[in-house]
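Task 17 of the worksheet. Students: predict the tertiary structure of the chain below and write it out as structure tokens. Keep your answer in the requested format; marks are given for formatting as well as content.
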Amino acid sequence: MLFYSIIAIDFILSLIVGALMIRMILYVSYKGRLFDIPDGRKVHKIPVPRLAGVSFMPTLMIVIAFSFGIVYRSHLMSAPEPDGVLLIRLSFMLGSAMLLYVVGILDDLTDLNYKIKFGVQFVASALLVSSGLWLNNFYGLFGIWRIPFYIGMPFTLLLLMLITNAINLIDGIDGLASGLVIITLALLTFVYLREKRFVYSTVSASMLGMVLSFWFFNMFGTPEKKNKLYMGDTGALTLGLVICFLIVSICYCSGRNGAQTLGKYIAIVLSSLLIPILEVPRLFFTRIINGKSPFKADANHIHHLLMRCGLSSRKTLLILLSSDVLIVLLTAAMTRLLSLTWIFVIDIMVYAVMLFIISRNIKLETLPKE
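Model answer:
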């Protein structure tokens, strides 16, 4: 009971600290006129601050430091994970996230070249993998179970970059990227609570509270009241890396019910990111087919396509978040009946059907106003 109480306190503390941090960022942003200026591919029409992501790393560090310090120094709990390996992985995660955090701030302020951003993402991902944290098992996907490090490490590095960029790319309308992340973090918190892993539970619960705090400002704030802001690349890149750390770390849980249980956990958590993950290759190849640079931003993301069907941004958000929850529930149900290979295939088919239905209803008209 004490374990769950401490994690609940971490969640509440991150909500409070996150809100206070965002208030300070709003003040600085409006005072210094640090805005996201609208252009042809953006939905918003009024300049809005986009530095909410600056609050993410400080909030996470404050809550983690408070939680670890109080728990261990006051002997409320005996250290459940005393091995040095965990501390090394946590240190590498925080260092890698801080690297992306700094680059994200520079990009939000100056619009860095995409080559620099990808280069730093590669370095940050490589540092995290070099800590010994990599997918060591495919849990029966395509009949593959244990995998050697020379396959698992590069695969994990690619997965880290994929998820990090997926969250960044889907961040196009109010509440979408953060809403999807909230679903993922809620699932991760549930997994680590079930496994009684204090460190990972603290990180996931703290991130959940922090992003939820931002989500309310992003969704219900208004430029007129000067309480609306976006997470920017700082937030998207930081969230992407920390979420990857939490997902891959599931491989190193105790697995009280065996490897199959861990495989089901990973399948369910990844299903919550199915839409943004599959958007990356779709956009990449669509741009190449259309003779454009695969790294040049456009207005062909799934939320743009839905809005071309005549939907408002709020209805688009509701459809995508609802679809995400249904995909998670479908995946969870299938883990009781099917292998991971069939789950993987069916999830992709669900995404393909979604795109087909959307493409059949696109109207030849401009994006609607918010």
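Marker's comment: The radius of gyration is 20 Å. The CA atoms of residues 316 and 322 lie 10 Å apart.
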